[in-house]
Write the structure tokens for this entry.
Amino acid sequence: MSEDRTIGVILDGVPSRCAEGLPLTSLLAARAPGWRASPRAGAPRGMFCGMGLCFECMVEVDGRPARACLETAREGMKIRTATGPGAGS
Ligand code: FES
């Protein structure tokens, strides 16, 4: 039996805790205002295809562009969304 491990990440500059290995899309849907599932044209980014094809879920992870639907949470990860504080700066 495995135990869930809680880890620390930085989401849009704010420290946050979550389960290690949590899909990034789940973390963002719960804690990133403006980030949503199934975005519509003109809406802020979010998850659409959920399998790495559409690029609608693009975020920045540790300074590099990443598709949130292909990432899982790991200790110390720095995630920046296009809708979070400081977006566009
Ligand atoms: S939701 Fe389509 S690439 Fe991530």
Remarks:
- The mean pLDDT is 87.
- DSSP finds one helix and seven strands in the chain.
- The CA atoms of residues 16 and 72 lie 14 Å apart.
- The two ends are 45 Å apart (CA to CA).
